[in-house]
């Protein structure tokens, strides 16, 4: 399938992009020209759009089998890519498969083969063994954040999946990390590299700030830093799940509302937390490195390294959550005075002066509302806005981001309007059906 410039412009408008950035201008045609390509580019630079445009160009209308497989290390990244593809409105079916998702639902979705299949290595391997889809139509393989897949121990599953696909003619590898060893089982030949990585210390859009704590338990200093930052979107990175939970609880005890995010949480809980963070119901997210890449979390102004990561690669991924595209951002290194500076920080950083006595950050303006109906119930954003406006008496500015999933929906509503709205709609129906409408947990 061949797309002209006008068609590409139409596709980009569907995802609210006016034009390709420099990396995308290099990568998109590069993927098409070369058999095997490795794209190196920072988190948040638009890699997904770059490789999806190439995938789309390679699609064939008459082919009714799976044509492209995208392997990813996490369910969050799989869902994000699926959402971008759907927003592009290509006309080609997509399916998403990952651990924690209902297997029977996935099998049903694969009965009519999608042109694009996205999934985690273990779940895709499971489907191949079950023979729930045919692999002989796959010509394009994309390994997104593939270094992370290897680091997480998916090498055996990836090797099985790639080895089971007999007719791959194009391989697209994507990463935000430069120090990469491509395993032999990937099958690359004459790998063409498109390198758009920028060192954090050379990135003038990212400001590095050092914050010192007199105590080894740095939570008091963290609270002071959050008061200093104020009510702006911030991710606080910890190295372990237990530390995330403890830090989150201690901040709440100090009157600073936040949400925890790590791999030990249930899938639904993780997805709901990210929705609340994206829509402004949660301003402070305490997270492991699971939140460092592959998540669709725009406009984050601040990153706090409560614990410093062991490697420069993870430091880079964390910082990639801010100062994205043309935006500016700040990464804070919260360290005990006796803690040694890691060798990957080569700058001499002067400690930031933070007042000890400050007012706590203002609470979030929004609260997230949960509705137990979604796309499978024929609900869409227009239905929900109309219902909340007419029955809930909300104004346009009272309603924020709306996310409609298969079986449920989430709506950001101004906090000062929520209780009155819930009281007005408690006995009302949406499109003739009664749904549970409550504040999301």
Number of self-contained structural domains: 3
CATH architecture of the largest domain: 3-Layer(aba) Sandwich
SS strand fraction:
15-25%
Number of strand elements: 17
Largest sheet: spatial strand order: 3-4-2-5-6-1-7
* SS summary, helix count: 14
Query: Please, what is the average pLDDT?
Result: 90
Q: Low-confidence segments, ≥5 residues, pLDDT <50?
A: none
The CATH fourth-level homologous superfamily of the largest domain: P-loop containing nucleotide triphosphate hydrolases
The CATH topology of the largest domain, please?
Rossmann fold
Shape: globular
Please give the largest β-sheet.
Answer: 7 strands, parallel
- Specify Rg, calculated over alpha carbons: 23 Å
**C-alpha termini separation:** 45 Å
CATH top level label of the largest domain: Alpha Beta
Task: Describe this entry's structure for a reader.
Helix 11 links the parallel strand 10 and strand 11. The chain contains 14 helices and 17 strands. The strands form three sheets. A seven-stranded parallel sheet has the order 3-4-2-5-6-1-7, sandwiched between helices. A six-stranded parallel sheet has the order 8-13-12-9-11-10, with helices on both faces. The protein has a four-stranded antiparallel sheet with strand order 15-16-14-17, sandwiched between helices. Helix content is 33%, strand content 19%.
Task: Give structural attributes.
seven-stranded parallel sheet, six-stranded parallel sheet, Alpha-Beta Plaits, 441 residues, Rossmann fold, alpha/beta
Question: How is the secondary structure organized here?
Answer:
Elements: H1 5-14, H2 22-33, E1 36-40, H3 47-58, E2 68-71, H4 75-88, E3 94-97, H5 103-111, E4 116-119, H6 121-130, E5 140-144, H7 146-151, H8 155-163, E6 170-175, E7 192-195, E8 206-213, H9 219-229, E9 234-237, H10 241-253, E10 259-261, H11 267-278, E11 284-287, E12 302-305, H12 312-319, E13 329-336, E14 366-371, H13 381-390, E15 399-404, E16 409-414, H14 418-425, E17 437-439
Parallel strand pairs: 1-6, 1-7, 2-4, 2-5, 3-4, 5-6, 8-13, 9-11, 9-12, 10-11, 12-13
Antiparallel strand pairs: 14-16, 14-17, 15-16
Helix pairs in contact: 2-3, 6-8
């Amino acid at each position: 399938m061949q797309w002209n410039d006008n068609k590409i412009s139409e596709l980009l408008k569907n995802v609210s992009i006016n034009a390709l950035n420099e990396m995308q201008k290099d990568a998109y045609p590069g993927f098409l020209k070369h058999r095997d390509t490795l794209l190196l580019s920072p988190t948040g630079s638009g890699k997904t759009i770059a490789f999806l445009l190439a995938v789309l160009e390679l699609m064939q209308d008459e082919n009714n089998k799976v044509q492209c497989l995208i392997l990813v290390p996490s369910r969050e990244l799989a869902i994000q890519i699926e959402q971008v593809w759907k927003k592009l409105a290509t006309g080609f079916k997509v399916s998403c498969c990952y651990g924690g998702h209902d297997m029977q639902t996935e099998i049903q979705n694969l009965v009519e083969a999608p042109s694009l299949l996205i999934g985690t290595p273990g779940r895709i391997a499971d489907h191949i063994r079950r023979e729930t889809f045919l692999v002989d139509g796959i010509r394009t393989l994309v390994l997104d954040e593939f270094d992370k897949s290897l680091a997480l121990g998916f090498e055996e599953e990836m090797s099985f999946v790639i080895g089971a696909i007999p007719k791959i003619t194009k391989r697209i590898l994507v990463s935000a990390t430069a120090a990469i060893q491509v395993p032999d089982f990937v099958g690359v030949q004459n790998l063409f590299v498109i390198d758009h990585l920028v060192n954090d210390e050379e990135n003038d859009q990212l400001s590095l700030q050092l914050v010192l704590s007199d105590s080894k338990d740095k939570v008091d200093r963290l609270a002071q830093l959050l008061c200093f930052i104020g009510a702006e979107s911030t991710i606080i990175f910890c190295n372990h799940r237990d530390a995330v939970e403890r830090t989150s609880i201690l901040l709440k005890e100090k009157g600073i509302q936040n949400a925890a995010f790590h791999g030990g949480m249930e899938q639904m809980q993780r997805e709901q937390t990210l929705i609340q963070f994206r829509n402004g119901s949660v301003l402070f997210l305490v997270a492991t490195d699971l939140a460092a890449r592959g998540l669709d979390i725009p406009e984050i102004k601040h990153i706090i390294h409560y614990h410093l990561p062991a490697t420069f690669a993870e430091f880079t991924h964390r910082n990639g959550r801010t100062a994205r595209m043309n935006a500016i951002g700040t990464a804070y290194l919260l360290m005990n005075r006796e803690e040694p500076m890691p060798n990957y920080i080569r700058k001499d950083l002067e400690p930031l002066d933070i007042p000890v006595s400050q007012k706590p950050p203002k609470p979030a303006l929004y609260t997230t509302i949960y509705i137990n109906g979604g796309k499978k119930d024929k609900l869409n954003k227009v239905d929900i806005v109309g219902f909340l406006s007419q029955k809930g008496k909300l104004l346009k500015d009272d309603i924020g981001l709306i996310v409609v999933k298969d079986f449920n929906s989430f709506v950001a509503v101004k906090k000062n309007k929520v209780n009155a709205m819930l009281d007005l709609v408690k006995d009302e129906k949406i499109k003739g059906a009664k749904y549970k409408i409550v504040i999301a947990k």
